[in-house]
Amino acid sequence: MPDEPSPRVVRAAGGVVWRQVDGRVEVALVHRPKYGDWSLPKGKLEPGEIEVVGGVREVAEETGFAAVPGRSLGVSRYRVLDKGRDVEKTVQWWAMQCREGEFVPTAEVDQLRWVAPTSALARVSAGYDCAPLQAFSAHPPETNVVLLLRHGSAGDSERWQDHDDERPLDRTGLAQAQAAAEVLSVYGVERVLAAPLLRCQQTVQPLADRLGVDLEPVKAAREDENAPGAAPLTELLRDLAASGRRAVVCSQGGAIPEAVRALSGVSDVRARKGSLWVLSLDDGVLVDAHYTARLLEPA
Q1: Cα separation of 170 and 289, whole Å?
Q2: Which of 10, 45, 53, 66 has CB 3.0 to 4.6 Å from 89, enough for a Cys bridge?
Q3: What digits encode the pLDDT tens for the residues 158-199?
Q4: Nearest by Cα to 149 from 238, 71, 221
C-alpha cells in the first residue's frame, strides 16, 4: 500500500516536568540516543488527541513518571522532515508537577536527569526548548488552577417547550461530556461544580463519576446570576483557586466570557459549547489563561 500523505503540520505536546527536593526546584531532561541530544520530554499526538492529554501521555512514556499539568507555557514551532517532506511541527507545552513513577531506560530515551531550571537552559540541545523553560521560570512552578467549562450542545433553545433549566444535552453534547471527563481528569481535579441546570450538570456528571466525587450545584455559575459583569462567577473562581483544591466549574455562555475578562483584562474571550478555559493564578493574580475550543474532535 502507498504511504499515507504527510500532514501539513505535525502536532506534538510536552512538558517542563518539575519537582521540589529540599526546597529546590528541579526539572526533568531526557537524552535521546537517536539524536544524541538533551531535551524536554515531548512527542507526537495521536490522531484526534487533545494536546494536554497527549502531553501527559508522552511525558509518562519518556520519563516513567505521572505528571499533573498546570499553566501552559506556549507553543514552539519549527520545521521537520516528515515522510520526506518539509513540514511545520508545533509543540504545546505545560508546566507539569511530577508525581509517582520511576524512570526505565528505553531505546528512545536512555537517560533522565533532574537539574535546576537555569542548568536546563544551558544543557538543552535545541533552541525551541528554551522558550518553555523561560516561561516556566517567570512564575512560581506551582500556581493555583481552576477550570471553567461551558456546557455541551443542548439542541435548539427556541424549539424547547419546557422550562429552560431542564433542557438536556443532545447526542453531540453527551459525547462532549464523555470527552470532557477524559481531558479534565488529567488535571488532578478534586471538586466538580455546575450551574443548577440539567445541561450543565450532565456535562460534568461523567467526570464526577470517574473521580468518585459528588457534583456540587452552584448558583454563582448561572448566567442569570451574573449580569452584568459576572461578579458572582468571578468571585467563585478566585475562591476556588485560593482553596488549593483543583476544581472545575461548568457554566454558560452568557457568564464565562465576562468572568474571564474580569480576571484577565483581555477583551476578546471565546466560549463555544463544550470548550474549556484553564485559569492559573499566583497570589490571586491571573498569570495564564489557556483556551481549548474543542474537547471533542468533530466526527
Answers
A1: 29
A2: 10
A3: 788 788 889 999 999 999 999 999 999 999 999 999 999 999
A4: 221
Please give the grid coordinates belonging to residue 106: 528505553
Distance CA 291, CA 189 (A): 17
- Sequence letter at residue 34: K
Give me the domains of the chain, ranges plus CATH numbers: 9-137 (3.90.79.10), 144-292 (3.40.50.1240)
C-alpha cell at 199: 445541561
Pairing of strands 24-32, 111-115: antiparallel
Sequence-distant (6+) residues with CB within 8 A of 45 are 11, 12, 13, 51, 54
The C-alpha cell 540541545 sits at 125
Task: Report the residue count for the chain.
Answer: 299
State CA 158 to chain mean position distance. 33
From residue 252, alpha-carbon distances to 46, 197, 203, 259 in Å are 30, 10, 11, 11
- pLDDT of residue 218 exceeding 80, the answer is yes
